[in-house]
Automatic annotation (TrEMBL):
Protein name: Uncharacterized protein
Membrane-spanning parts: 6-28, 86-106, 112-131, 256-276, 288-311, 379-396, 485-506, 634-655
Keyword terms: Membrane, Plasmid, Transmembrane, Transmembrane helix
Entry superkingdom: Bacteria
KW Transmembrane (keyword) present: yes
Length: 665
């Protein structure tokens, strides 16, 4: 009864928090115009209170800072507007997570293990909503950039210079893009344009706006000129950029369509485990033994772990590679411990070639953890797996012991008793004497003593014997629940699984990155198309711009830039030898030709075959998106299939086999 009361209090408290969240944000507009938003004092106080709460709460302040940093780059308004938008975005994500926790608690039936799992999944949902909010703003900005380029083309034809064209476009540019357009205008009208562009490069929200800055700055520095086809160099370059933006938008829309519903399909089964359990027990009460026992706990934990893994896999497939610049503070701190650092160094030296390949893989997927940190991460994952396994074991044992001592709901169902009140009296006696007699040895004397005490409660000898038998049967099962020796074998297997999981995830990410390699090379060709008509363009300048847009080949390009000061041709040849991807090697061959001829001649084939590469890129994007979606659809069904088979069908099958065995079939 106290457990149920505590559950209700928790449910009410969380519901109150959710209601407060709704009341504080219900009147806030989702969209903003260029003019400032007028807010009431009450709403401002509410937002300020949320800001203080999010920026000071230990767990939430990390995500609030992440959202704020993202907005400072993508939404470069004044400090107050950024904090306001970051607070509201965080509030929406927290509110969604709180409502989900309320739902989990309401269906949990007091199962703390399930509540803990639900809270973990609410955390993943919380991070998913943050990512979705960031993607939404990024997509909005990209759409506005496309319209901005269209407007600039018109105004450039009238004004004749870049900065005036941008200034004339500001009044008709949407608010978000207008903030960046204003920054670009200030850069172009600054005394030292190159210095301002270098500063902006580090904080550019995406590569397309960065390309726009590069085009404008190049024209500002070198001037515009008319190409052989009679077109302006500036207008030709922004046309190339507009095509790139359109390709990216089509790619994102296709990905969004192909992956729509997969995250929901992955997470949904976990939130209906209790509904399945309640349905099974309502039809066959004896199935309580499975769901409340160690088997049910183990299956529930297994479905939870697999759901988390599948969720991460689908997120990686959908979003592609993400340059992970996290500091890995815990791992970094562990590596400062001399004994740990020494052990890691010795282990890496023992298998140097293998760890060298791992290091290359980490660089390719953009993970800056380093090979030492990655090894520590693998060990931590192994230890975490052992901890999780033991948590499941001890939870299952606790639930089994608790149910043996307290759960008598389906007991004595087959007994022919005078009425239901009599059956309930038998159950109450069984609960009382199971609890009080659990330390008694199972001897005839003790059985007689317990039976006599039960008879004093008004239960006849015939039924008191049944109660006594049930009491000592449960006590025997209670004593049989302990930590088995073969649990150690499960721990060893769990450690190995956890240890190899980061490595398998790395291989999985590498496969995704390799799918995008050709697309990245075609992006390099577009950058060259933009730069090739600029007089005096050198290899080092081209490489600087390629490095800003690189991901798969970033490490090789960065090393090449460092080696340029010794010999350009040797640096390029070394970069070519390091990479095995044929399209990239052919691209480097063109860069090598720049040493002997000008860049226009070296890359003339790119301009000639531009239409072919554009169509090929569209086709390749469709193929890659389809391949990823097919893998995602297969993987997304795993939690659902496991839930239906292991958590719903298997208990029924086991019960049927038990019944057939009991009747001698």
């Amino acid at each position: 009864m106290s457990s149920n009361m505590m559950m209700r209090v928790m449910l009410i408290a969380i519901a109150v928090c959710a209601v407060l969240y709704i009341l504080l944000t219900i009147n806030i507009r989702k969209k903003r115009s260029l003019s400032p938003i007028k807010s009431t004092k009450r709403s401002l106080k509410g937002i300020y209170w949320l800001y203080r709460f999010f920026s000071q709460t230990p767990v939430l302040k990390r995500y609030y800072a992440k959202i704020k940093t993202f907005l400072e780059i993508n939404y470069p308004a004044d400090e107050m507007s950024i904090k306001r938008k970051a607070t509201l975005t965080t509030a929406k994500c927290v509110g969604a997570a709180l409502l989900l926790i309320v739902f989990v608690i309401s269906i949990s039936g007091g199962d703390w293990f399930y509540i803990c799992m639900g809270c973990f999944m609410s955390y993943f949902i919380f991070t998913y909503f943050i990512t979705a909010a960031q993607e939404s703003l990024d997509k909005k900005l990209l759409n506005q950039l496309g319209d901005f380029i269209t407007n600039i083309r018109h105004h450039y034809s009238v004004a004749g210079n870049v900065e005036d064209a941008i200034y004339d476009t500001l009044d008709e540019t949407p608010y978000e893009m207008g903030l960046h357009a204003t920054k670009i205008y200030k850069m172009l009208t600054a005394t030292n344009v190159e210095h301002e562009v270098d500063k902006y490069t580090d904080i550019a929200p995406n590569k397309f706006i960065l390309t726009m800055v590069a085009i404008c700055a190049t024209i500002k520095e070198y001037g515009d000129k008319t190409l052989d086809d009679g077109q302006s160099l500036f207008l030709t370059n922004i046309n190339y950029l507009k095509e790139e933006i359109n390709v990216e938008l089509i790619k994102r829309r296709r990905n969004a369509f192909l992956f729509s519903g997969l995250i929901t399909l992955t997470l949904l089964p976990l939130f209906f485990l209790k509904a399945i359990e309640a349905w099974g027990i309502s039809n066959i009460p004896e199935m309580t033994r499975f769901y409340a026992g160690p088997a049910g706990t183990t299956v529930m934990a297994g479905i939870f772990v697999i759901t988390v893994i599948v969720y991460q896999l689908i997120a990686n497939l959908k979003d592609g590679h993400v340059d992970d610049e996290r500091e890995h503070k815990i791992i970094g701190w562990l590596l400062t411990v001399p004994y740990i650092n020494k052990f890691v160094t010795l282990e890496i030296n023992r298998h140097y070639t293998k760890h060298l390949r791992i290091d290359d893989g980490l660089k390719m997927v953009g993970d800056r953890i380093g090979v030492k940190g990655f090894l520590v991460k693998r060990v931590l994952f192994g230890l975490l797996a052992v901890l999780l396994i033991n948590l499941v074991i001890f939870t299952a044992e606790w639930r089994t012991k608790y149910n043996l001592l307290n759960d008598f709901k389906t007991t004595f169902e087959s007994s022919i008793v005078p009425d239901e009140e009599y059956r309930e009296a038998m159950r109450e006696a069984a609960v009382e004497y199971t609890l009080s007699s659990r330390n008694l040895p199972d001897t005839p004397e003790n059985r007689q003593m317990v039976q006599a005490q039960i008879e004093k409660k008004g239960i006849s000898p015939k039924f008191s014997e049944q109660v006594t038998s049930e009491v000592f049967t449960r006590i025997a099962k209670y004593r049989d629940v302990y930590y088995r020796w073969w649990f150690l074998l499960i721990n060893i297997l769990g450690y190995l699984a956890g240890y190899y999981l980061p490595y398998l995830i790395l291989q999985y990410k590498l496969r995704i990155v390799k799918m995008d390699m050709e697309d990245e090379v075609i992006q390099y060709q577009t950058i060259v198309l933009i730069l090739m008509h600029v007089d005096g363009m050198l290899v080092d300048t081209v490489l600087d711009w390629l490095e800003r847009f690189s991901f798969c080949f970033r490490q090789s390009i960065q090393e090449c830039i460092i080696n340029l000061e010794y010999s350009t041709s040797k640096a390029l040849q070394k970069m070519k030898n390091q990479e095995t991807f044929p399209p990239f090697r052919r691209f480097v061959d063109n860069l090598l030709m720049v040493e002997e001829e000008d860049i226009l001649t070296a890359f003339s084939e790119i301009e000639t075959d531009r239409e072919y590469y554009k169509e090929k890129r569209k086709t390749d994007n469709e193929i890659i998106s389809t391949q990823k979606a097919e893998v995602g659809k297969i993987v997304a069904f795993i939690p659902l299939i496991l839930t239906l088979i292991i958590y719903m069908i298997v208990p029924f099958a086991l019960y049927s086999m038990e019944m057939m065995k009991s009747i001698g079939m």
